[in-house]
Write a structure and sequence with these properties.
alpha+beta; Nitrilase/N-carbamoyl-D-aminoacid amidohydrolase; 13 strands; four-stranded mixed sheet; six-stranded mixed sheet; about 260 residues
Length: about 260
C-alpha cells in the first residue's frame, strides 16, 4: 500500500488528474489457487486504503480509482473498485459483476458477483466509468457505462499468460487489447486498461497498460515486463465528434434487443 501511495504521488507530480490502480492492487493475485482462506486480506470501505487515498486525492487534487478485496457490510467478499474525487470524497464503489472461474483464475472461489449495478461518476475532471478485468470481454457493460454518461472507461486488470500453456486460440494479449479498442469505437468513449506486470506462481502477467481514444487509436502504452507510470493527455471532446459522425448511439434499435434478456440464448 505504501509503495502504491508513492507511485500515486509521483504520477500526480507528473500531471496526472485521474489515477487508476491495477486490480486487487494491495495483494498478490491469490485466485490462481482454489479455495484458500484469504479472509485476512480483505478490507472494508471505508477502511485503510480509502483512508490513505482519500487523503492523497485531497492533497493533490486528483481522482483516484482504488481496486481492492472488499468485505462488504453483508459479510460477503467482493472484487471492488472505489472512486475517490479530487476533494477526497468517495463517489461510489463498483463491485465486479462478471466473475470468471477458469484454471488459475478461480475467482468464483472468492468473490460474490457484484450487486451494485453499473455506475458512472461525475468527477472534477470528467465523468468516468469503472469496470474490472473480466468485465472487459463483454460488450454490454461498456455500452451501459456509455449510456450512463461515461467519457472514459477504466478497466483495472490482472491478466496474463499461464506458464507452459500453449494456446490454440491465438494471441491472448492481442485479443485483450482488440476487444477494448472495439468498446471505444462502438461507444465513442475513451478507454484506459490498467494491468499487472511480472510473475506470480503459475501466471506471467503481460502488463501492457494502455489508453486509447474514442476511435480506438492507442495513444500510449507501457512495457510488458516492468512497472511503469503512464500519464496520457486525452481530448474527451473527440467522443462527441465520433458519436455524431458514426451514429453508433443515435441509430441504436433497443426495441429489437429484448432477446438479450432471455435466459438460455
Amino acid at each position: 500500500m505504501q509503495k502504491t501511495a508513492k507511485k500515486v504521488e509521483e504520477a500526480a507530480k507528473l500531471g496526472a488528474q485521474i489515477i487508476c490502480l491495477q486490480e486487487l492492487y494491495r495483494t498478490r493475485y491469490f485466485p490462481q489457487e482454489e479455495k484458500q482462506d484469504v479472509s485476512s486480506l480483505t478490507e472494508t470501505i471505508p477502511g485503510a486504503s480509502t483512508d490513505l487515498f482519500c487523503g492523497l486525492a485531497q492533497k493533490h487534487g486528483i481522482v483516484v480509482i482504488v481496486p481492492l478485496f472488499e468485505k462488504g457490510s453483508d459479510g460477503k467478499f467482493y472484487n471492488s473498485a472505489v472512486t475517490i474525487d479530487a476533494n477526497g470524497k468517495i463517489l461510489g464503489t463498483y463491485r465486479k459483476i462478471h466473475v470468471p472461474n477458469d484454471p488459475f483464475f478461480y475467482e468464483k472461489s472468492y468473490f460474490e458477483a457484484g450487486n451494485s449495478g453499473y455506475q458512472t461518476y461525475k468527477t472534477r475532471y470528467g465523468r468516468v466509468g469503472v469496470l474490472i478485468c473480466y468485465d472487459q470481454w463483454f460488450p454490454e457493460p461498456a455500452r451501459i457505462n456509455t449510456l450512463k454518461g461515461a467519457q472514459i472507461i477504466f478497466y483495472p486488470t490482472a491478466i496474463g499468460y499461464i506458464k507452459g500453456h500453449k494456446s490454440e486460440d491465438g494471441d491472448w494479449h492481442e485479443a485483450w487489447k482488440t476487444v477494448q479498442r472495439a468498446h471505444a469505437i462502438v461507444n465513442g468513449v475513451h478507454v484506459a486498461a490498467v494491468n499487472r506486470v511480472g510473475e506470480e506462481g503459475h501466471l506471467k502477467f503481460w502488463g501492457g497498460s494502455f489508453v486509447c481514444d474514442s476511435f480506438g487509436t492507442v495513444l500510449a502504452e507501457v512495457s510488458s515486463v516492468k512497472e511503469e507510470i503512464l500519464v496520457v493527455k486525452v481530448d474527451l471532446g473527440k467522443n462527441q465528434r465520433i458519436r455524431e459522425g458514426w451514429g453508433f448511439l443515435k441509430n441504436r434499435r433497443p426495441e429489437t434487443y429484448s432477446p438479450l434478456l432471455k435466459e438460455g440464448l
